[in-house]
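User: Reviewer 2 asked us to show a designed sequence for the structure in our supplementary figure. I'm pasting the C-alpha cells here. Could you produce the per-position amino acids so we can include them in the response letter?
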C-alpha cells in the first residue's frame, strides 16, 4: 500500500498531475504529511485486522515526492511481475521504493520496453480479460506490448479514457472502471470510450 512518510517533503518538486488536480489544489491545497500518514495508518490497521499482510515502500529518491499510489509502478499478470514505464519524470525512480520487496520475488519479471508508456493504473485484470487504459498516462503501444507478451493466455482490450477535450480528465482507467468480483464492476460511464469496456461477463475466477 502507499507510503505517507516523506509525502511532499520538498514542495518545489511536487507535480500537478492534471487539470482536475490543479483545480482541486487551488481550492483546497494538498493534504499534509500528517494527514496522509494518519489515513494510511487507519487503512493498514483495517487490512491487517482482516488478515492481510501489508507491505510499505521504502522512501524513494528525492525526485519522487508522492508514493501514495504504488499500484502504478508495477503489476502482476499471472505469476509475472511487470515493471511499469511511467509517463512523468517525477515518478521514474519510484520503483526504487520496492526494490527490497522485489529482491525476494522469485517469479518471472518483465519490464515495459523503452519508448512505451504503460502504468499500472491503466491495467485492469478480470479473469481471462485484461483492460488497458489508453490516455493521459499509457499509450496504445502499451496495450500492444501486453498483447505480444500475454495475448496467448488473456484477451487484451484497449480502452481509451476520455481527456479534458472530451469533457473529462481521467488520469488512469482504474479511475473509471474497477471490477469488484462476483460478476460486478464499478463503472463511471463517461470516463471511457466505449463505456462500459467491451468484454465477456466479468469472471469471478483467476488465471
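Assistant: Here is a per-position design you can include in the supplement:
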Amino acid at each position: 500500500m502507499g507510503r505517507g512518510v516523506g509525502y511532499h517533503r520538498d514542495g518545489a518538486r511536487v507535480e500537478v498531475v492534471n487539470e482536475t488536480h490543479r483545480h482541486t489544489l487551488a481550492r483546497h491545497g494538498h493534504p499534509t504529511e500528517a494527514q496522509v500518514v494518519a489515513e494510511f495508518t487507519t487503512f493498514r490497521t483495517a487490512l491487517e485486522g482482516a488478515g492481510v499482510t501489508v507491505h510499505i515502500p521504502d522512501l524513494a529518491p528525492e525526485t519522487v515526492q508522492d508514493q501514495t499510489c504504488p499500484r502504478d509502478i508495477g503489476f502482476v499478470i499471472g505469476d509475472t511481475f511487470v515493471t511499469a514505464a511511467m509517463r512523468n519524470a517525477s515518478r521514474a525512480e519510484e520503483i526504487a521504493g520496492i526494490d527490497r520487496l522485489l529482491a525476494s520475488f522469485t517469479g518471472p519479471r518483465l519490464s515495459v520496453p523503452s519508448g512505451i508508456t504503460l502504468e499500472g493504473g491503466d491495467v485492469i485484470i478480470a479473469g481471462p480479460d485484461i483492460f488497458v487504459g489508453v490516455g493521459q498516462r499509457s499509450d496504445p503501444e502499451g496495450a500492444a506490448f501486453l498483447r505480444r507478451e500475454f495475448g496467448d493466455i488473456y484477451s487484451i482490450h484497449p480502452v481509451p479514457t476520455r481527456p479534458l477535450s472530451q469533457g473529462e480528465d481521467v488520469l488512469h482507467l482504474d479511475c473509471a472502471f474497477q471490477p469488484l468480483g462476483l460478476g460486478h464492476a464499478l463503472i463511471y460511464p463517461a470516463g471511457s470510450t466505449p463505456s462500459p469496456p467491451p468484454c465477456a461477463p466479468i469472471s469471478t475466477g483467476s488465471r
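For the response letter, you might also mention the following. The first strand starts at residue 74 and ends at 77. The CA atoms of residues 100 and 185 lie 33 Å apart.
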